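Appendix B, example 12.
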Amino acid sequence: MTRATALYDVPGPRTRQRHLIYGVLSTLVILALLGWIVHLLFRTGQFTSTKWMPFEYKGIQELLLRGLGNTLKAFAIAGALSVALGGVLALGRLSDHRWVRWPATAVVEFFRAMPVLVMIFFVFVALKAQPLPALVTGLTLYNGSVLAEVFRSGVHSVERGQGEAAFALGMRKTQVMTHVLAPQAVRAMLPAIISQLVVALKDTSLGYLITYEEFLHAGKLIASNLDYDLPFIPVVMVISPIYIGMCMLLSWFAGWVSRRERHSPKTDAVDVAAAEPGTLLPGGETPTAPRP
């Protein structure tokens, strides 16, 4: 017989019926709320042909595609640099030398506390950088500092005995980190890394404040057009699903990487040949079956 492993009592018939009622009522409330929102949109004329007409023009479509491309460009650069910076700062925080660990800790705590927008404006105004470098720098400094803490926590989440066993075998700290701790920590860190990259993707929308022509900037230009009766809501209804889709794509990619890692040949079981009679002691002879 299988033994229950749940940490709570299995719900009985009345409890299951009560949970079903709660679920049905919650679904009805959500549907009613959505219906009320759609009713308001229709009543305020958000689905009129005038407000949706801009998306039929090729120039508007090219503007949106160009903005989407600039958003993905900024995210790709900032994401790669954030992961690299986070790894460097995490190594600094994990160092045994104080003159390395303390400056790395100060950098991480400072840029984690600074608002992203302040850093973007500082680079753009004070350093007179172009919009793309200013946006990428702000996103890299903030997200890299957060990822440094993610990496450090992931390494500390590995059982202490793993590192101690590796040190006992004579491995150096670099070898222990590279071959023992980091590979095991990646699985624990992956969801947090993807979540932070999603934050970086959404924060690229701050680029419109420094005139960077990203996706939200393109949507703002369309939404503020008086010729089409200020189609703000239609622009939101077009841009939001694309942002949500990109975030969901990142989450799917994280799941795919996790499944691929679990089925990696390096971690698969290896068939071992059955034991055969052999030499038991140095210089001894291979034992043979006794003759009848």
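DSSP finds ten helices and no strands in the chain. The mean pLDDT is 82.
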